């Protein structure tokens, strides 16, 4: 009993001041979404930007980026790509047949220190539709948009968002927030039978396929998936690394020099896997235990790597694409001698 307490004290002393990811009560997931450090609930997050709130009030756990009021529902977080998939709301602007506006939603989203990936598109659907997206890039406000006007849903090509019934634009680089707004030229007059509403949303490229049916019925699609790029802080690798206490790429993790956005990203050394943002979490991959290694004979795992070896009496690098394994001359001679002796 005493020994256990002493051991516990020693272990805690060895671990030193506990960094958030070591706290035992940090949830590693919310519903079926895993929440890897630097993300975490209050007290487990690396900084303000990485707060995740797991909301259980509806009975089903829902992970929100930031506080639940953000309305940003996390779908997945990747520590290897530095991307996060989020659901954001669809904007709408609806009219009845007399041309009176009956509903309008103009959602806005803010991503703190993160940026909207350029892998998204801004898409608008409608036949009397002026769609506008604006947002912050650094301290400037930028905006862009598209227009689609039509007076029938005939001759509309399903599957392509080509400017009639549906229009789309790419997202400017570096945006940290967006506001969407929709307006119409003649309140959808004369078209409400097939298109009473305009809709607009930000969505990961390739995840939406236009169908002329959506002009009439798009109610079910309240939220759409988009990608957000995340990184640590605002300084690049060479500056961030000087702040040794806070720098996260430790152990067999290195700062990702190929990342050129703001802040820095970590990645495990080649041949290692794990969460590169947790100290000592990158561990050696046993290549030999996986299919795909290129050894002809024996495979020997090494830190970050593996080597191949040849059977006794053979030499070479043992690699399929290398020098392979060739019989030693002495062995050939021996075999020949045996062969001669046998015959
Ligand atoms: C778990 O993920 C699947 C697909 O990724 C999704 O359809 C399902 O609704 C999720 N379940 C919960 C409880 O979030
Ligand atoms: C975690 O997020 C909260 C809310 O934004 C913030 O108050 C807190 O300082 C963050 N934790 C750390 C360690 O920065
Ligand atoms: C459209 O809405 C306006 C205002 O709510 C209402 O006065 C009008 O009767 C409505 N028209 C139809 C056809 O429902
Ligand atoms: C977005 O909308 C919010 C209010 O909803 C407003 O405070 C903010 O200034 C708007 N931002 C831009 C870039 O239009
Ligand atoms: C932000 O504004 C300040 C002062 O108005 C300016 O000096 C700075 O260059 C701006 N930064 C960016 C990124 O636009
Ligand atoms: C579709 O377009 C063709 C020519 O582009 C036209 O002849 C035809 O009338 C159109 N159909 C309808 C239903 O508008
Ligand atoms: C709607 O149709 C009526 C009758 O065909 C026409 O007079 C009016 O200009 C049309 N309105 C719009 C906005 O196209
Ligand atoms: C790496 O982190 C994950 C998630 O916190 C944990 O489950 C795992 O045991 C860690 N692995 C190592 C080698 O520390
Ligand atoms: C293993 O490491 C050696 C020396 O660093 C390198 O030449 C070789 O390409 C590496 N092999 C693999 C499979 O990574
Ligand atoms: C085969 O030859 C290699 C050098 O070519 C040598 O290192 C190795 O010991 C030899 N093996 C045997 C079994 O003779
Ligand atoms: C090794 O050889 C295989 C075919 O045996 C080939 O598909 C593969 O690209 C080669 N790999 C390298 C690194 O040359």
UniProtKB/TrEMBL annotation:
Annotated signal sequence range: 1-20
Keyword Kinase: yes
GO MF annotation: an example: polysaccharide binding
InterPro entries linked to this entry: EGF, EGF-like_Ca-bd_dom, EGF-type_Asp/Asn_hydroxyl_site, EGF_Ca-bd_CS, WAK_GUB
SMART domains linked: EGF, EGF_CA
Domain EGF-like as annotated: residue spans: 240-283, 284-320
Topology class, membrane: Single-pass membrane protein
Location within or outside the cell: Membrane
One Pfam family here: EGF
Keywords: Disulfide bond, EGF-like domain, Kinase, Repeat, Signal, Transferase
Chain ranges passing through the membrane: none
Disulfide bonds: 249-266
Protein name: Serine/threonine-protein kinase, active site protein
Organism: Artemisia annua (Sweet wormwood)
């Amino acid at each position: 009993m005493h020994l256990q307490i002493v051991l516990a004290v020693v272990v805690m002393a060895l671990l030193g001041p506990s960094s958030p990811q070591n706290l035992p009560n940090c949830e590693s997931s919310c519903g079926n979404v895993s929440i890897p450090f630097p993300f975490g609930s209050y007290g487990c997050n690396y900084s303000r930007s990485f707060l995740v709130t797991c909301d259980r009030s509806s009975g089903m756990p829902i992970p929100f980026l930031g506080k639940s009021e953000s309305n940003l529902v996390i779908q997945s977080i990747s520590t290897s790509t530095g991307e996060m998939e989020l659901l954001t709301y669809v904007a709408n602007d609806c009219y009845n047949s007399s041309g009176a506006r009956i509903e309008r939603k103009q959602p806005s989203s803010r991503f703190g220190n993160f940026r909207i990936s350029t892998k998204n598109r801004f898409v608008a659907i409608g036949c009397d539709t002026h769609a506008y997206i604006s947002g912050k890039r650094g301290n400037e406000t930028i905006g862009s948009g598209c227009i689609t006007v039509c007076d029938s849903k005939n001759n509309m090509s399903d599957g392509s968002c080509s400017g009639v019934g549906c229009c789309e634009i790419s997202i400017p680089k570096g945006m940290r927030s967006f506001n969407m707004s929709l307006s119409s030229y003649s309140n959808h007059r004369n078209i409400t039978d097939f298109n009473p509403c305009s809709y607009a949303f930000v969505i990961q490229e390739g995840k939406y396929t236009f169908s002329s049916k959506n002009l009439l019925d798009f109610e079910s699609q309240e939220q759409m998936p988009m990608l957000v790029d995340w990184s640590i802080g605002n300084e690049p690798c060479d500056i961030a690394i000087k702040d040794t206490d806070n720098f996260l790429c430790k152990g067999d993790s290195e700062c990702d020099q190929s990342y050129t956005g703001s802040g820095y990203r970590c990645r495990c050394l080649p041949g290692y896997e794990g969460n590169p943002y947790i100290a000592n979490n990158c561990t050696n991959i046993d290549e030999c235990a996986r299919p795909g290694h290129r050894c002809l004979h024996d495979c020997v795992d090494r830190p970050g790597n593996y080597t191949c070896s040849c059977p006794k009496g053979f030499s070479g690098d043992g690699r399929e694409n290398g020098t392979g394994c060739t019989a030693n001359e002495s062995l050939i001679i021996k075999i020949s001698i045996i062969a001669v002796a046998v015959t």
